[in-house]
Amino acid sequence: MTLLDGRATSKKIQEELKAKVDELKKAGKKVPHLAAVIVGEDGASLTYVNSKVKTCEKVGFESTLIQLPATISEAELLAKVDELNKNESIDGYIVQVPLPDHIDEQKVLLAIDPKKDVDGFHPENVGRMTLGLPTYISATPNGILEILDRYNIPTEGKHCVVMGRSHIVGTPMSILLGQKRNPGNCTVTMVHSRTQDLKSITKQADILIVAIGKPEFVTADMVKDGAVVIDVGMHRIPDSTKKKGFRLLGDVKFDEVAEKASHITPVPGGVGPMTIASLMMNTLKAIELKGQL
Ligand SMILES: Nc1nc(=O)c2c([nH]1)NC[C@@H]1CN(c3ccc(C(=O)N[C@@H](CCC(=O)O)C(=O)O)cc3)C=[N+]21
After folding, report:
1. Which of 5, 91, 119, 251 is catalytic?
2. What's the CATH number where 189 sits?
3. What range(s) does the Tetrahydrofolate dehydrogenase/cyclohydrolase catalytic domain occupy (predicted)?
4. Ligand 1, closest atom to CA 244?
């Protein structure tokens, strides 16, 4: 079994990005600038956003963190988005989701200038991604493509089963892996909470991508021998014996599935760090894509 080491791969990508930033600097060009908006004080969301900002520093990007109270109105958040659209120093930005219930998430995502939408969540960019036009591919699916590529995992003609149909992972992942591209050219099946006879389908997967949001849902009996297993789940389970007061679990029962898989991503240290690395790649792309979007 080969462990797909997202942390090490992310570090490698960060070094490559740093080298590109150094070149930009040498040429007297602008360094990429990422802004992140976070609404409210959810602990996990704050951890992710802080790690995005920290990674900007590591690769030499400029970054701006905008923390807003959970009580902010939709209109006030939309005004902030408008300000970021107009701010010429900022190349790309993200609005961390989920947003509080009183704010219409779609409305906010629609207000983001597609040119600065490094999350690739704007409907225009989702459309461009679907049609294979130049755009930002959202960070988690892009990170998964990147790790498959860097570990030279063959995907062409393989049966890929994507578990979950969220707008940020399952849906784009199944579209991308079915496309005429590399990694890609897969035969894709998407399964979800209404799927009948789930196990009979997951057992057919050469590549199994799990993004259903249920801790340790995927067990060894659901996986084919030699499958490549990508675990997108991230759950904080309260645990008083841990320093932080919790431990992290994925959507896959790691120990037993690892015995059957040919390759598997751990949690933590798998897809999470790859998501951050690919957000950085998209931020550099924001400069490169200028004029193409
Ligand atoms: N607009 C928007 N864009 C996002 O990309 C976005 C978002 N909203 N909302 C939340 C999800 C989640 N997400 C993660 C990023 C990194 C880790 C990560 O680095 N995880 C570490 C562990 C971190 C920990 O200790 O909790 C790991 O897996 O090793 C996890 C999750 C980005 N998201």
Report:
1. 119
2. 3.40.50.720
3. 4-119
4. 25
